[in-house]
Design a protein that fits this description.
The complex is a heterotrimer of chains A (263), B (282) and C (278). Chain A has 263 residues and is an all-alpha fold. Helix content of chain A is 70%, strand content 0%. Chain A folds into 2 domains: 2-123 and 226-250, no CATH class; 136-209, no CATH class. Chain A has 11 helices and no strands. Chain C has 2 domains: 2-233, 3-Layer(aba) Sandwich (Rossmann fold), CATH 3.40.50; 237-278, no CATH class. Chain C is 41% helix and 21% strand. Chain C has helices at residues 41-48, 71-75, 94-104, 109-122, 138-150, 168-183, 195-201, 219-222, 226-232, 238-245, 258-277; strands spanning 2-10, 16-25, 30-34, 56-61, 64-65, 78-81, 156-160, 187-191, 204-209, 212-218. In chain C, the strands form 2 sheets. Chain C has a 6-stranded mixed beta sheet with strand order 6-7-8-3-9-10, with helices on both faces. Chain C has a 4-stranded antiparallel beta sheet with strand order 2-1-4-5, with helices on one face. In chain C, strand 7 (156-160), helix 6 (168-183) and strand 8 (187-191) form a beta-alpha-beta unit. The longest helix of chain C is centred in the C-terminal third of the chain and has 20 residues, at 258-277. The radius of gyration of chain C is 21 Å and the shape is globular. Classes of the chains: A mainly alpha (263), B alpha/beta (282), C alpha/beta (278). Chains in contact: A-B, A-C, B-C.
Amino acid sequence: MKVFEGLKFKRVSSPIHRLDPRTKFIVSCVIFAQAFLFTEFLYLIILFVAQIPLVLLARVHKQWTRSLRGSLILTLLIFFTNLIVGVVSNDFQLTSDALTYSTSMSLRFVVLMTSFSIFFLTTSPDDLGLALEQSHVPYEFCFAFTTAVRFVPVLAREAQTIMDAQKSRGLELEKGGFMKRIRNYVPILIPLIVSSIRRSLELAEAMETRAFGAKKRRTSLYALKITREDILTLILCLVLLITTVYVRLYIPIPEVTIPIPRL
Amino acid sequence: MPIIEVKDLFYTYPNFTEPFLKGVNLTIDKGDLVLLTGPSGCGKTTLCRCLVGLIPHFYGGEVSGEVVVSSLPVKEHAISELAQHVGFVFQNPENQLFALSVEKDVAFGLENLGMPRDEMRKNVDWAMDLMGIGNLRESAPFELSGGQQQRVAIASVLAMKPEVMILDEPTSFLDPVTARKLFEIVRSLNRALDLTVVLVEHRLSLLSSYVSRIVVMDEGRVKMDGAPIDVLTSKETRSLGIGVPKIMQLYQTLVENDIQLEKPVISIDDFVEGIRSLLKND
Amino acid sequence: MIEVENVSFTYPSGVEALREISITIGDGEFVAIMGENGAGKTTLIKQLNGILKPEKGNVYIDGVNTKEASVAELSRNVGLVFQNPDHQLFSETVEEEIAFGLRNFGFPEEEISKQVDWALNLLDIARYKKTSPFLLSGGERKRVALATVLAWNPKIIVIDEPTIGQDYTQKEKLRRFFNELNTQGRTVIIVTHDVEFVADCSPRVVLMYQGQIISEGRAKTILTSQEVASKASILLPQISELFHQLGDLGLPRDVIDVSEAKELIEDLVKRSKHHESL
C-alpha cells in the first residue's frame, strides 16, 4: 500500500504544484521516455538524481521516499534477476558488467515508476479533471473520472462499515482455507455493490435536477491557464529531449562500471 | 397566485398494477412554506418527484392528471428545463454532491446551463454567502459534516435561482440541533427571497412553528391540508399515526379538560404566553 | 456486565473520539447513549464487541477483556445492530440472512431453523421468510437487520440510531419492542439523538460530548437540565423546555411526560382560580 502513497495528491503550495497539469504530464512523459532511451548506468543515475531537486521543490519528499520504500521489493527482484542471469551466462562468475547492468535496470525501473509520481503528487484530481476537459476529452468521461475520485474515500469508509457489520455477525475473515477465505468476502462485496448501484441511481436523479445535459456546450467555473513558468518548463523539456536524442545517436556515453566489492 | 397546481394526479410505478398516487389535488401559492408529511409509504416522495419531472421522465410509469409548476406542464418539459424553476434537495447529503470542492458543486447546475463565467461567479458567491459556507469554498465534500453537506446542496440549488425549492427529508441524517438550524435557514430563505418551499419531514416538533401550512398524505391521497393548528389538533391526524408534537398533544388534552388558552398554540412560546395570560385573567 | 475503564481511543485520521471514558452497565439495564453527531457514541459501542480496541484503558464484557477476545467471540454475547441495514443484507432470502449469523456461531442446523422462525415472529416478518431482503421497504429491512442479530439471542443488544427515517408509528412499535426485550431480561443499549423518543422510553441516559461522558442518570433528570443540554448541544424535549420557561410559576422543572404535564397545569389553573375566589 505504501507504493500508492506516491500517487495520492498532497495539498501543498509549491512552484511545481502551480504548473499546469498538462505541462507536468508532458514532463513526466519525457522523463519516462528518457529512461527507455538509455541503458547506460551513468545516464540513468543522472536521470534519477535529477528528480530529487524537483521532489524537494514540490515539498513532497516524504511521500516520494515512502513510495520508493514500497517499491523496494520489486526493485530488488529486478536487480537480482538480472544479476543471476548475468552471472549464469558468464560461467558463474560475477563481473563488473553484470553488476552495473543489474543496477542500471533497477534504476530504470525506479525512474519509470517515479516519473509519474511527481505528477500525481502535485496535481489535484480537480485539476486533472479540468485538464482532461480542456484537452477536449468528452465531458462524460471527465465527469465519470472526477466523480469516481470523489467517491473513493466514501467507498473506502463504506467497505469498512460493512466489514464491521458482518464481523459483528460472527464473520471471521481470517479463518479457513483459501477457498473459504474468498467466499468470506461475498458478504462484503454484495452489500458494497448493491450500495454502489443505489448510489449511482441517487446521483443520476440529483444530476437531472441540476440540469445535467441541458446544454450541449458546458461552461466551467475554473479554467486552467498556461503561464510563463509552464512555457519555460516546456521549452526546457524540449531542449532536454532533443539534446539527449542527439547524444544517444551521436555521442558515446562514457562507460561507468561498478567495481565488484571485495568480500 | 398558484405556482404549483396538481389536479387529479394518478401515478403507477412501472411494473406495478396498482396506482401509488390515487388522485392527488394540491395547490401551492407563491411564497408558501408548506410541510408535507404522512406515514412511510404514503406517497410524499413520489409526489415530490412528480413536481420536478423525475416522474415521468426519469422513472417512467403511468401518469394521469395535471401537474403544472411555474406555469410549465411537467409532462411536456424536460427535467433540465424544469430544474431552472424547481430545485430539489435530497435526503442523503452525500449522494447529491459530485465535485471535489464545494465551489465547484455549487456551480455544477450553472455549468450545465452554460452560464458565462462572470455571471456564474456572481451566482455562486451569492448562494454561498446566503448559506454561510464561504469559508468552505475549497473543501472536499468528504471532509464536511452532514449539516455542512446539506448546506452545500441547498446552495447549489439556490445558485440556479429557482422559484420553488423542494426538500425531501433533508434532516434525516442530522442531529436535532443541526436540523433546527437548517430549518431556520430554509425559513429565512422563504421570507427573504419569496422562495416557495415544499418541505417533506417527519420531525414535526421542530417545524410546526415555521410553516404556514401542513399537508398530510396517506395511501396516495391528500388527507388533510390546512393551518398547522387545525391539522395537528384534529383527530384524523392522530389516527393516521403522525407524530403530533408533544406541546400540541398537551394543548389538546387541556382543551378536552376545559382549559382553554386564549390563542391557538403551535409553538412553545405561544403556550407560555397562553398560560401566563390565562393565569392573569383569572 | 459491561465495564468500561478509562478508555481512550483515537482514529488513525487523528480524531480523538474517546477521552478517558468510564462507565458500568449492569445486566438487564436499558440505556440510551445520547449526544450530538461526533460526540463519540458510535465509537463507544464499537468498543463493546471488539471492533475497536481501546488505545488506553480496558473494556470488560462479563469479565473478559475485549483486547483478549475476537470480535466473533464477543459478538456472541453483544449483538450490535448497525444504523444502515443495507450495509449487511446480502442473502437471497430473509431466512438465509437470519441464518447467516447463526451458522457463523456454530449453531446446529435444527436449532438454526428454530431460531430463524423465532426471530421472524419476534419482529413480525414471518411472511417475508422466503422473500429477497432487497425487495422490502426501508422499515422492513431495518426489522430484518434486527432479526438477524436477535436470532442468536445475545444477552446484550446494542442498536445504533434505530429511529432515523422512521415515522411515528414505526417509532412507537420500536419503543414497545425495546421495552419488551428489556423486560425479557436482555440488556438493551440504544444510541440515539432523538430526545422525544428517549423521553417516551425513559431509560438510563448517558450523555456524551466530544469524547467524554458529561452526565448520566434517569431520563427525567438528564433531559430536563438546561445546563446539561446546552453543554452537550442537544435539544430538550418540548415539554421540558415548556416547563423551564414556566419555572417562575412554581412548577417543577423535571417534567417530560404529557400526562404529568397536564395534571400539573390543571392543578396550577385550579389553584389560581381558587385564589381568585378567596
